[in-house]
Design a protein that fits this description.
The complex is a heterodimer of chains A (276) and B (352). With 276 residues, chain A is an alpha/beta fold. In chain A, strand 7, helix 8 (200-217) and strand 8 form a beta-alpha-beta unit. Chain A is 39% helix and 21% strand. Chain A has helices spanning 3-9, 58-65, 88-93, 111-119, 127-130, 133-154, 170-182, 200-217, 228-234, 252-256, 259-266; strands at 20-29, 32-42, 47-51, 73-78, 81-82, 96-98, 188-192, 221-224, 237-242, 245-250. A 6-stranded mixed β-sheet of chain A has the order 6-7-8-3-9-10, with helices on both faces. A 4-stranded antiparallel β-sheet of chain A has the order 2-1-4-5. Chain B has 352 residues and is mainly α. Chain B is built from 15 helices and 4 strands. The chains are: A alpha/beta (276), B mainly alpha (352). The structure holds adenosine-5'-triphosphate (ATP) and magnesium ion (MG).
Chain lengths: 276, 352
């Protein structure tokens, strides 16, 4: 039995168990230590923010969670099962979906097709059957389409559903990326700097989507973000990374007044208690 | 940009996802098919022969389009996969006496099995190195089939194959073969459209465009690359088996690297990542090839100093010019140019 099946067949864990548990993870690239002894956990329904200066290792952390990087030490468990060493697509299917810091969408495909790519993750049709679209393929496609439409509706992408994603602006592309991640029926969602490069209105939209995702999907979210006002508003808990280490963790109010964090990251210009 | 023709408002997802969307489109498609089916009535014998070889080639090119154009996996061995199909089909037909209806798909599967090996390699290597590996397919094919026992494959002499027959009806004239090949081509074209429009098609494109991120998107990258080669080789195998029934004599020299490169040329001319583009590429390139074949002897007569080597030499030159020219002028292929024209027509008079 492979890991994925193990995850699927395991009884649901009791409420106290964290959805995601990262235990003493270290990741090195040659001499560079991207993560050292990082531990964190994410509980059901939590929105956890990971912040820290550029190069602190935030993306490396998400990449390790997604199975894209392979930490040398430590363990990562999803619902109590280790996912270390699993292939990225297996981790995705096991319920950990993420969006990318950069733009990674299929630019020649339409918005709805990009979302359908995600929806297809657990489709059953075989290659041989898909050779005969009208006999065998179309029913599954229509079902995937219906599901993708729901997500497109949720993200206000209905009007551009047929547009190739390559023709869309930056903000919309990021939203397609989010839609594609949601299509994987995630049990936990990781978002890497979702607000970067967006204008105020787009940021507001996205913040609203994240809040709605928590409400409707009832899944925890791990968010890497530089915009402190967004982080302080949305996050239940915050982990601060610095040079690959967890510098501090706690509720937003605690982080804002933490002297180490202010020195290392928030800087002198950041006034405690005022979410600018 | 995708837009419906004026007046077409799909009412269901099924309708909205249909490829042939309006009555005029259906009518044009049907008329075109009827014209094709009636081909033997009005094509000249030469035209009929050209059509037959082109349609067989088109099936292999459809496979290459999936493999190269959709999945982005370079493949310099499509002719070899075709050869494997031709030999498997020929040997199977000769020894088992099975009907072509069974032999052709089995030959496709045999070629797919050969393609599978390269798919597995493609999951480990990319780009230039993959190109070199698929190049090896060409040599492996040549070596293996020339050295297999001569009473199976005919060795260097080649293999004779009995004509395909159905309930005593023999496909032994250009006209009859034309219908057989056309039916298989239509079926394979339908299959190619079916695959690329669905989940597997999107996964192929994900691997092509986002090789490293595709896994995180839930795509099994290794399997998808294997599928790309399986499919590409399956189409080639079907084409190869048809080729055997068409020529009724096959030898390893009919499936050369040169053919593989022509097929890549067809895809570049027609447009990467489009099934229709693959077909257009075949038509355009074959027309140019035939043009050279007709024109070169005339030129050789007029200017005898050029010599009889001219035809083959000019083939090479034209292929080179064609590929370079397409890449310079319309790197996305003729199909893309057509789509641009079509979408600007649909939203006329607005510029976008
Ligand atoms: N694939 C890699 N190979 C080598 N070094 C890497 C690789 N990925 C990340 N690093 C290094 O790991 C460290 C952490 O990088 P990471 O991208 O995780 O930072 P980050 O916190 O996401 O920064 P940013 O806020 O700029 O996105 C950096 O020193 C980076 O150079
Ligand atoms: Mg980062």
């Amino acid at each position: 039995m492979n890991r994925q099946e193990t995850l699927a067949t395991l009884p649901q864990v009791h409420p106290g168990t964290p959805v995601l548990d990262v235990k003493g993870v270290s990741l090195r690239f040659g001499g560079v230590s991207a993560l050292s002894d990082v531990s964190l956990h994410v509980g059901q329904d939590e929105l956890v923010a990971v912040i820290g200066p550029n190069g602190a290792g935030k993306t490396s952390l998400l990449n390790s969670l997604a199975g894209f990087y392979h930490p040398q030490d430590g363990d990562i468990t999803l619902f109590g099962n280790s996912i270390l060493g699993m292939a990225p697509h297996r981790i995705a299917k096991a319920g950990m979906a993420r969006t990318f810091q950069g733009i990674h969408v299929l630019s020649t495909l339409s918005v709805i097709e990009n979302i359908m790519l995600g929806c297809g993750f657990n489709a059953h049709g075989t290659l041989a059957r898909s050779f005969f679209y009208h006999l065998f393929g179309s029913r599954e496609e229509v079902a995937l389409r219906a599901k993708a439409e729901e997500i497109a509706d949720f993200l206000d992408l209905g009007l551009v559903r047929h547009q190739p994603v390559g023709t869309l602006g930056y903000g919309l592309r990021k939203r397609v990326d989010l839609g594609r991640a949601l299509a994987l029926d995630p049990k936990i969602l990781l978002v890497d700097e979702p607000m970067a490069g967006m204008n105020g209105e787009e940021k507001e939209d996205l913040a609203r989507f994240l809040v709605d995702i928590r409400e409707l999907w009832k899944i925890p979210i791990v968010m890497v973000e530089h915009d402190m006002s967004v982080v302080m508003d949305l996050a239940d808990r915050i982990y601060v990374l610095n040079f690959g280490q967890v510098l501090a963790s706690g509720r937003p109010a605690e982080i804002q007044v933490n002297q180490d964090v202010i020195n290392a990251y928030l800087g002198g210009s950041y006034k405690a208690g005022v979410a600018t | 940009m995708f837009r419906n023709p004026a007046g077409i408002f799909p009412l269901s997802y099924r309708q909205d996802m249909a490829l042939v969307r309006s009555r005029p489109q259906i009518a044009v498609l049907l008329a075109f098919l009827v014209l094709l089916v009636l081909g033997p009535l009005y094509f000249s014998p030469r035209m009929l022969a050209v059509m037959n070889t082109s349609m067989i080639m088109a099936i292999a090119v459809l496979g290459l389009q999936i493999n190269l154009g959709y999945a982005g996996q370079i493949n310099l061995g499509q002719a070899a996969f075709m050869g494997v199909g031709a030999y498997s089909g020929g040997v199977l037909a000769n020894f088992s006496g099975l009907s072509f209806i069974v032999v052709i798909p089995l030959a496709g599967l045999a070629a797919a099995a050969f393609g599978y090996l390269f798919g597995v390699m493609a999951s480990r290597i990319k780009g230039f190195y993959l190109a070199l590996t698929t190049l090896a397919a060409q040599f492996v094919f040549h070596f293996v089939f020339i050295n297999l026992p001569a009473d199976w494959t005919g060795g260097a002499k080649g293999l004779a194959i009995a004509p395909a027959s159905l309930f005593g009806f023999q496909f032994n004239t250009e006209g009859r073969l034309y219908i057989l090949i056309l039916v298989v081509l239509v079926l394979m074209t339908y299959g190619a459209f079916s695959i690329v429009r669905g989940r597997y098609g999107r996964e192929l494109i994900a691997v092509r465009d986002e090789d490293t991120a595709a896994g995180i998107m839930g795509v099994d990258v290794v399997r998808t690359k294997v599928r790309a080669f399986l499919l590409g080789a399956f189409f080639a195998g079907v084409a190869g088996a048809l080729w055997g029934y068409y020529l009724r004599y096959i030898s390893v020299d009919q499936f050369t690297l040169f053919n593989s490169i022509w097929m890549i040329g067809m895809i570049i001319v027609g447009g990467m990542g489009s099934i229709t583009g693959a077909l257009i590429g075949v038509v355009v390139v074959r027309a140019i090839q035939e043009g050279i074949t007709s024109f070169a002897p005339v030129l050789a007569d007029a200017v005898p100093s050029l010599g009889s080597e001219l035809i083959f030499a000019s083939y090479n030159i034209v292929l080179g010019i064609l590929i370079a020219g397409s890449l310079l002028i319309e790197p996305k292929g003729l199909m893309h140019r057509w789509n641009t024209i079509k979408s600007s027509y649909r939203i006329w008079p607005y510029p976008y």
